[in-house]
Amino acid sequence: MDHSSNRAGPDGGPGTARALTFEEFVAFRARHLLRTAFLLTGGDAHLAEDLVQEALGRVFLKWRKISRLENPSGYAQTVLVNAFLSHRRRRSTTERVTDVLPETGVDDPDPALRLTLLRALSALSPADRAVLVLRFWEDRSVEETAGALRIGDGAVRTRTRRALVRLRAVLGTGLDALVDRSSPAFPAPSDDSHDSEKAVAHRVH
To answer: Tell me: the pLDDT tens digits for 141-153?
Structure first.
């Protein structure tokens, strides 16, 4: 999980006793928020940007309070996920997967795999996708994911298992051509498979 502190160093990152200003927080976290939104939307870069702007707007309105939290980044991520789910409830739209990925600071070692996974994610329901993004991309526990989505722990486990099964169904045998056979990207889901399921996150990062 991202436990970024609300304390800023000389470069605007965590490190000293000074609380981040909102502008520093945006500079420090906006890129990560955009990547999270990109996964939530199944690869819709335009919608991802809109959701990040909406989330940051909500955070700005409460920044004085949020900046004093232990983990303002986690709060912002929850706001982003809720903005995504609210958008899905407001509008029933056809999702569009794009081959244009957000800029990254390092070379993508396997862009084909990333695109395949984005297409697989886009086939999931918004709620199931949100669970996977929180559990694996954000590395949140079952309990934390349940709290963010306002559902029960059992519902998180059920959605996680179901979503992983559907990802396997969508990816099919084509996954074998993209990943090392000795290190499967999507392990068989079970109630106690959190550690092994983290492989999902490594494949979408």
So the answer is: 999 999 999 999 9
What is the mean predicted confidence (pLDDT) over 119-127? 87
Q: Are 58 and 79 in contact (CB under 8 A)?
A: yes
pTM of this prediction exceeds 0.90: no
Q: Please give the C-alpha separations between residue 41 and each of 49, 69, 123, 124, 141, in angstroms, as whole numbers.
A: 10, 27, 10, 10, 22
Q: Alpha-carbon distance 49 to 68, whole Å?
A: 26
Any residues with CB less than 8 A from the CB of 88 and at least 6 apart, and which? Answer: 126
The predicted model gives 72-83 an average pLDDT of 94
pLDDT recorded at residue 2: 52
Show the 3-state SS of the chain: CCCCCCEECCCCCCCCCEECCHHHHHHHHHHHHHHHHHHHCCCCHHHHHHHHHHHHHHHHHCHHHHCCCCCHHHHHHHHHHHHHHHHHHHCCCCCCCCCCCCCCCCCCCCHHHHHHHHHHHHCCCHHHHHHHHHHHHCCCCHHHHHHHHCCCHHHHHHHHHHHHHHHHHHHHHHHHHCCCCCCCCCCCCCCCCHHHHCHHHHHHC
Q: How far apart are CA 80 and CA 118, in angstroms?
A: 18
On whether the CB atoms of residues 170 and 112 are closer than 8 A, the answer is: no
- Half-sphere exposure of 160 toward its Cβ, with a 13 Å CA cutoff? 35
Which residues lie closer than 8 Å to 129 by C-beta, 6 or more apart? 39, 40, 42, 121, 122, 163
